[in-house]
Amino acid sequence: MGIIKEVSPCEGQFLSPIFTRPKRDNPTEYRMILNLKKLNEFISYHHFKMDTFESALRLIKPDCYLASIDLRHAYYSVPMAQEHQKYLRFC
């Protein structure tokens, strides 16, 4: 997938711990966990209200089309700006 690459140390980098845990539904498989708790201390919080599924259904008019998307690997397809990648390093 090309989602992880080896990098050299840089000024202002932030290192977070990474580890694995067995998946609940299949303990023979593991999921990777990147612990960003320390980084979150520097992130400002902005409250927003997410619409409910019911409110989204009310917006659908006759002859509207719907799509279904598998978001299982969607996290890995979100691009990260080059200048922000130094904050998502792990060890």
Structure explained in plain terms:
- The structure is a single chain.
- By secondary structure, the chain is an alpha+beta fold.
- The protein has a domain at 11-44 and 83-91.
- It contains two helices and four strands, in the order βββααβ.
- It has helices at 37-40, 53-58; strands at residues 15-16, 18-22, 30-34, 89-90.
- A two-stranded parallel ribbon has the order 1-4. Strands 2-3 form a two-stranded antiparallel ribbon.
- It is extended, with a radius of gyration of 19 Å.
- The two termini are 19 Å apart.
- Residues 2-91 form the Reverse transcriptase domain.
- This is Reverse transcriptase domain-containing protein.
- InterPro entries: DNA/RNA_pol_sf, Hepadnavirus_pol/RT, RT_dom.
Question: How far apart, in Å, are the first and last alpha carbons?
Answer: 19 Å
**Number of distinct helices:** 2
Residue windows where pLDDT falls under 50 for at least 5 positions:
none
**Beta strand count:** 4
Residue share in helix: 10-25%
Strand arrangement across the biggest beta sheet: 1-4
Helix- and strand-based class? alpha+beta
Oligomeric form of this entry? Answer: single chain
What's the main sheet like? 2 strands, parallel
| Mean pLDDT rating | 87
Query: Measured on Cα atoms, how large is the radius of gyration?
Result: 19 Å
Measured by DSSP, the beta-strand proportion falls in 15-25%
H-E string: EEEHHE
Mass-distribution shape: extended
InterPro entries: DNA/RNA_pol_sf (IPR043502), Hepadnavirus_pol/RT (IPR052055), RT_dom (IPR000477)
Protein name: Reverse transcriptase domain-containing protein
Organism: Patella caerulea (Rayed Mediterranean limpet)
Domain Reverse transcriptase: 2-91
